[in-house]
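Morning. Coffee machine broken again, so started the prediction first thing and wrote up yesterday's gels while waiting. Chain of 179 residues, entered below exactly as on the submission form.
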Amino acid sequence: MVQNITVNGISVRVINGDISLAVADSIVNAANRFLKHGGGVALALVRRGGREIQVESDEFVKRHGPLGRGEAAITTAGKLSAKRIIHVVGPIYGEGSLDDLVTAYRAALEASDRLGDSVVAVPAISSGIYGFPIEDSAKALYLALSAIRPKSLKEVDVYIIDKGQAAAFESALGKAMQS
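Came back before lunch.
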């Protein structure tokens, strides 16, 4: 299941697979405010990429404090194929809004573009342990892509490990484009 969709001149591919295996300039991590990578995508990235990702994340929080809404933290990607990891905080369902989710995606996409990336790999932010419906995550990505003015970014690869969730995300992204 890899269908190419174009939004705002950027090719979007939904890939049923493990984001820690992504081949991209940057990989986006859906993080918590303290950049403690204890579960979900964050833990998968640290397990495959190495402890240095957590060490650098801890140093970021010591220097800058907890990551805020709309902010992005950049760390090493360790042993991953990407050059770096862009960490953003997605909202928790019931505590945050769709606008908060758009803000998280937009922070990641703008950081990726600012860093000169051509390809960025993203998860379905907040749709895992933070509980947002997959359809909301797809709509938020579409709205964020529509709002940015990319200079270098050409491709966004959305990695979702669950086949059914990947299909639902792809379907919802198509619907968002038609609304």
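Strands lie at 4-7, 10-16, 26-31, 73-76, 84-89, 119-122, 155-160. Going to sketch it on the whiteboard this afternoon.
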